[in-house]
Structure formats: C-alpha cells, structure tokens
Amino acid sequence: MDIFVGRQPIFDRERRIVGYELLFRDADDATAARFNDADAATREVIESAFLDIGLDRLAGKQPVFLNLTRNYLLNPPPLPPQQVVYEIVEDIDFVDDIRRAIARLAADGYRLALDDFVAAHADPDVLPRVHIIKIDVLAHGPRELERLVTRLRDLPARLLAEKVEDEATWTRCLALGFSLFQGYWFSRPQVLRGRRLQANQAVVLQLLRLVHKPQPDFRALERLIEQDVNLSYKLLRMINSAYYGLSRKIESVRRALVYIGQDALRGWLSMLSVRELDEANRGLTGLALARARLCELLCPDEGEREAWFTAGLFSVLDQLTGLPMEEVLAGLPLSDDLVAALLHGLGPMGEALNCAIALENPQESSEDERSFGELGLEQTAARYLQAVAWSQEQMQALG
Question: How large a percentage of the chain has pLDDT more than 90?
C-alpha cells in the first residue's frame, strides 16, 4: 500500500531550515489533503512518518512539527521529545482538561506550538507554556499584525510567520521581529511516498531500527515489543528456553531487556524479528540463521563478528517484506560496510555472504565460489555444516 506525507520546511532569520511541518496527504500531490476525520489524519501522519517512511528520510536531524487534535492532546503519542514539536490546532477550546494536558506535555519536555494564533482565542494559562506561536500573516492587515506582534513580544515564545508568500511579506516580518518563517515564497510542501507494511512488519522493522542503534533506548524497545502480544510472548519464550540456560526465570519484557545485556539483546531480537517477519511462509528463517552463523564463523576479526552475523541474517529481508533491499535498509542504522555487503556483495563481509549463498546451491556454483579466502572448499564446507546444525537448534529455541 502506497502512503504519502507532505512536508514543508521552516526557516530561521538566516533562511536556514530548522524543522519541517508534516502534513496529511492522500495522494502524490502537494495539494491533496482530503479527510473527514482529523484524528484519523493525525494518526496517519504519525504512523507514516515514524513507522513507514522514517524520520531520517523525512527530516534528517531536524525536528518535525505535528498537528495534535483534541483527542491526541489528551492521549498524546509517546514520541521522543527531542524530535517533535506538537502543534495545538486552532479550533481547540482551552477547557481545564486541555490546559492540564498542555501542562503535562510541557513538563515532559515537549515543545509546543499554537497554530494559526488569533488574539481573541488566546488563553492566559496556555500562552506562557508554549514555545512557538504561529501567525497566519495573510489573515492580518499590516497594522493589525504589528499590534498582535507587539502584544506577544514579552512572551517567552518565538513567533513564526506562516504563509509568507513574497519577498515584501518576508521583509516586513523580519522587521517586526519574527524569528521563524514558513510559506510558499521559501518552499512549497513536498510529498514523500512510502509503502505501508503489514502491521506486524512495521513494528518489527521499527524494532530493528531501535535495537541496532549504538545506544538502544531500552524503554522505547519495551514499549514497542509490548505493543505486539506475539512478539512479547516469543521473546520471553525464547529467553526462557533450555537452550539459553538462564539461572532465573524472566517474566517481563522489561526484565528481559535489562537482564540479558545489550550485545545479546541485539542478536536475539534480530533473530526473533526475522522469525516474526517469516510468519507468512516459515521458509526463510532457517536459511537466514544458517547464513548468519556461517558468516560469523568465516569472520577473521572477533570484533567484527556481530556485523558479519547481521549480514547473513538480514540478507533475506527483501524477500520477507516484499520491498527492495535498498528501501528496507534505508531506515536501519547499519554501517556502510554492512550495507555494501547486503546491497552489492562487496568487501570481505559481502564475499562471506556470497560464499554462503553459493554453498546453498552447489550445482549452480563453482568450487571457488564455495570457498572462502585461504580456507579452501573442505574447511569452508565444514563450517557451513556447523552453521546449518546451529540454525536448526535456534529454530527450536525460537519455536
């Protein structure tokens, strides 16, 4: 399923991009935004941005601005505060429960913006808590705009001029003291296209993105795993299996993540993720595990074995997801060497992966292709048999 997200850059006074507003779009058209349910539109933007397309592709290291409806303000998504600015839409009534929700978000470190600010709609309890006030400069005449800016100048919030359509408006807003700018004169919204995976695939790929970061966020991992009952069950069943021989029973996702350690966690969750993606045909997990183990056994540098293992394990991700390998890897924080091995079979890691594939198809490959480096065919084949036996043991542990 194709999905679309619009984005429009936000600039500072030096015309540097400092963020992107993400916009609902239902087609590959910068103007297409047809929806009847504002909550559904908000959910679609959040899921598409964070699970399907990925923030790296959408915004790089810049924060994204997301509109929150009343329902989402009361039950906000648990997104990382450093990556988002929550926009409070203009039609919200600032009743007590909304004021409390805004206070909670501010206390939790979220940056808040008031969208399409109108003086008559201002709330004295809310204004000191917001970080950005967005003003539609086309909706105000020159003198009215000057009076409005004068009224807001003593607040801690930065002023953002929306709908800057020409150079004259930009110059006037600069003189008035606006510090942020957005509008067609700078850039029209751009629509980015992605593909919507099945729900379990989206969760699993997000899990892989998190666990392969240099310093995984264990709380984010816990929340994500607990969203999927099957994933939680399989993780606990795998960790408590006789194969791993832990001295104490692990009964919660949180304890599992803390107890087993970062390195073991990365390997186990990667294997479990491949298994989860393979639920539809149950045919590729064993193959991926055998490749992973063989690549690990062929690795000459102990410090690189984890990456070589990952190369074999992830070599089937395109078949499991039905997506091009380039698209699958785009959202994963993997090294350049690992990506080159997976995409093009390059480098020593790529040679090991090519060797593993050749050993799976001896009738269609030469002896040189089935040999790795100076090991020769016999020694390489012996390691391959070890890898297949290990794969079968892992399949029993995975269930």
Answer: 31
Q: What are 325's two structure tokens?
A: 């390998």
Nearest to 92 by CA among 111, 118, 61: 118
Residue of 112, 77, 111 lying closest to 94 (CA atoms): 112
CA distance 24 to 89: 14
Residues 391, 286 contacting (CB under 8 angstroms): yes
The answer to whether 293 touches 391, Cβ cutoff 8 Å, is: yes
Helix (H, G, I), strand (E, B) or coil at 305: helix
- Taking the CB of residue 76, how many other CB atoms lie within 10 A of it? 17
Q: How confident is the model over 139-170, as pLDDT tens digits?
A: 999 999 999 999 998 898 999 999 999 999 99
- In sequence order, the β-bridge partners of residue 190 are 7
What is the residue type of 254? R
- Determine which helix (DSSP H) or strand (DSSP E) holds 75, and give its type and residue range: none
Express each pLDDT in 3-30 by its tens digit: 788 899 999 999 999 999 998 887 655 5
Q: Is the pLDDT of residue 218 over 70?
A: yes
60 CB-near residues (< 8 Å, 6+ apart): none
The radius of gyration computed from the CA coordinates of the chain, to the nearest angstrom, equals: 26
Residues 164 and 181 sit within 8 Å (Cβ to Cβ):
yes
User: Dihedral sign, CA of 151, 153, 154, 156?
Assistant: positive
- Distance CA(22)–CA(62), nearest Å, equals 12
DSSP state of 251: -
Give residue 261's region: left, alpha or beta (phi > 0; psi -120 to 50): left
How far apart CA 48 and CA 4 sit, in angstroms, is 7
Domains by residue range for the chain, with CATH: 2-195 (3.20.20.450), 199-398 (1.10.3210.10)
Q: Indicate the Cα dihedral angle 141, 144, 149, 154, nearest 10°.
A: 180
